[in-house]
Design goal:
Length: 265
């Protein structure tokens, strides 16, 4: 595609265009950078796609103060997109970049907002316990007892129990786990998909926004949402499983949904 005279003028790269550029016009700078590796085209590409980074950062931030940090992280995704973009794959750069930007911010949020941080010693012990349980179960067709584990790892039974409890509390629900591989569902259909479907770039972004909102709920709220909309249990069945009254489950479910709505606003 031939660029318009406005884009290809010799004005300084720092000058903002006096009209909003189309996606095709923006992509001219990307294609030129891929072809020539020109620092000028790289600067222009970064400049015209920075609003995309900031838009995604605002969508994924639940605190306005976090937007600058998320924008910086998202900018890394934009730079990686410029370096790895392959025009021959016939995918729009905005789509390719959005995926990378969201990915960078997603990893940052996971590291920053990890619900429970295990002490290194407990984490290492829990890892050994998991491996030992796997091996012993395969070998003896039954899992080892706490006493067996303590003996084989040369630690006290209290340490084994503490490590296992800490390890289990560290686990959170996987909101990307497939709903199933049989019947009406396929391996790529997740809880996020079942809570609403969008299209094109907005689908990826809205999916991640909803995921972060769900992860902001307390553990019990996440579990109730999971059981209700992932496993399809009724409130009565959830109450039985969690050993709570159905009225309590109903109240917790409604509170969780209200919190999600506030977050998503």
């Amino acid at each position: 595609m031939n660029p318009t005279p406005t884009i290809m003028s010799n004005k300084p790269n720092t000058e903002k265009p006096n009209r909003k550029l189309s996606n095709q016009e923006k992509e001219v700078f990307v294609l030129d950078y891929v072809r020539t590796n020109s620092p000028s085209s790289r600067r222009q590409a970064i400049h015209v796609y920075t609003p995309l980074v900031e838009y995604i950062a605002r969508k994924l931030a639940f605190n306005k103060d976090d937007v600058p940090d998320l924008s910086q992280v998202g900018a890394i995704g934009l730079l990686k997109s410029l370096e790895n973009f392959d025009p021959s794959k016939e995918i729009a750069f905005s789509t390719f970049a959005s995926s990378n930007i969201i990915g960078e911010i997603k990893h940052y949020l996971r590291d920053k907002c990890r619900i429970v941080k295990l002490p290194r010693k407990l984490q290492e012990t829990y890892s050994k316990i998991r491996q030992l349980i796997k091996v012993e179960t395969q070998k003896n067709n039954k899992p080892p007892t706490v006493k067996d584990i303590a003996f084989k790892l040369d630690v006290s039974e209290d340490i084994v129990i503490q490590s296992m409890e800490a390890g289990q509390s560290h686990r959170v629900l996987s909101l990307d786990k497939p709903l199933g591989s049989s019947g009406d569902f396929d391996d790529s259909f997740t809880l996020m998909d079942s809570l609403g479907v969008e299209s094109k770039d907005d689908h990826l972004l809205n999916k991640e926004v909803l995921k972060q909102a769900l992860l902001s709920l307390p553990d019990r709220g996440q579990r109730i949402i999971y059981l209700r909309y992932y496993e399809g249990l009724t409130q009565k069945e959830i109450a039985t499983r969690m050993r709570l009254s159905q009225m309590h489950i109903s109240r917790l479910l409604n509170d969780s949904i209200k919190k999600l709505k506030r977050k998503l606003k």
